[in-house]
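# nightly structure sweep
# worker-07 picked up a monomer target from the shared queue
# config: single-sequence mode, recycle default, output format = structure tokens
# input follows
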Amino acid sequence: MIKSTIQYTIIGLATLALVTAPLTAAEKANKTDKADKADKAEKAKKEPKEAKGIPFHGRLMSKTDTSITLHERTERTIEITSDTKITKAGKPGTLADATVGEEVAGMYVAGEKNVAKSLRIGAKPEEKKAEKKTEKPATKPDAKQPAATPATPATPAAPAAPAVPAAK
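# output follows
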């Protein structure tokens, strides 16, 4: 009897240990996950986020040394800084390259002053579009599609019959 009681006690304790071990491990993991999330949130608050750009495009109405005014649907003034990346015809350019009435586009950061991050003067360069089309990788034939068969030589066409004049 004592022997069976000891056996049941040992089996009970072993079962208890097996059941509670995963639960305590899960609690520890949750605590570390929460601490990691809190650290990341704290770092995100301390580090300023880089502002995302807002796209713009339109016709250049006027320009100064530090800003441009363009007409999209409405009139908009955008500040140009030394950090603004300016391109014309796909090559680096300056604000002096822009002429009134020319198409302009780019990205700006909204705020008290709309500060341009990038400015493209003129139409989009066609070279980049052609490069993208030629750079597409060849597609592999699917198992569902039959494999291409070799081309057979074309048979020469029969000569055309002479035109018969219409009878009157």
